[in-house]
## 1
Amino acid sequence: MEFIYQYHVVIIGIFFLGVIALMTGLTQRDKKWVRKNYKREDIIALGFGIVCYGLDSEKGAPKKHKGFLLIHRGGVLFKGRFSDVLFDIPGKSIQKAYHGDSHKGAKLYQSAVKIDFLRAPENREIETIAFKMAYP
């Protein structure tokens, strides 16, 4: 117990550095996935720490999926960090992108970027997805 009292600052520092190392490792894992699946010249923007609230057509309240958002020449892709969630929206099907503070009828209490896109181009069915962007 004496050791903890004497070196509590060191123990807190080691814990803090461990959390940072874990976050860096997860980000590197996501970057490796992007490099494996997309050419460098096709990537326009890549953002980490993005929260996706899911599709408008999903049942229930908005779900929070944390992951990264990739804007590439072919469209927009969101991939969840710890879940198997993957939303790939082709650029041709995107109708509009706009700001909103509610999704699926529920108030989000924060700013969100919403994207309307065609789910099935042949019957013109419009779907909405919402993202909360990380602040710099």
## 2
Amino acid sequence: MNICDTSIFGNTDEGILLEDVNHVTIQRCRIYQNSFGISMQPNEEEEDKPVHIVAPKGRSCTVETSECSITKNRWWGICCKSGTNFTDFNSRVSDNWCGGIRIGINWQGRVALEGTTIEYNRGPGLWDEMKHSKPP
């Protein structure tokens, strides 16, 4: 799936919600004033946890963003969990209320940022939860 040159804003929930996908490319998009910026949910329901870019159980996925503006969302701009391989090139993640980029428990996935500007978020700009958890 490719999402290019698009403005996504003013949604009560996620700006982008991806379910059960293998590869997504998001380029030159403005994602702002949503509940979460970019989210992906696994097939199964997880009722009490907010889950964002997350691979379906037992699978991995690849999400690539480039030259995007992910700003002023009510929670995290981007959140990576579960088997997600996430790469960003030259995007701006700013002014999100909870924080910029959250790297959750992500045992199989890799996260790479290149030329990414993370600034003026109300919470941490970059939060790596891996150091607070133990492998399954």
## 3
Amino acid sequence: MNKENFDNSAIFWSWGNMKRIIAIILLSLLMISVGYSQSAKENLEGLAKSKDFQGAADYIQQAVGENKKDFDLFLLCGDIYTELENLDSALIFYKKADEINSDEPMVLRKIARTYSGLKNHIGAIKTAKDAVDEDKND
């Protein structure tokens, strides 16, 4: 093997190794970012747990889009909006939670309290009665 062939072979293998190393690094970074990224629901839950209700509210639309039938998520969204004193939006989410699982007197109580906060006392009384009818121990 002459010197010219040896030099070209070294450059070729060197470049090939670099491509593999770069590919491994990029793939590793991608896997790490996917592993550490949180869903909108997880972000919302974490922010709500830390009492950052405004920050949590920023994730509601995306979280609901990803979890269209998640009873607990709809309740949490209602609770977040209640904390932010956005009772119209809270009522919407509590009613959606009730549509998903209508056997929960707790949801009806939240709806009744929200109606009361909105000065809809007739709706509050009717819904509170429904909650009692649903669970006589309530």
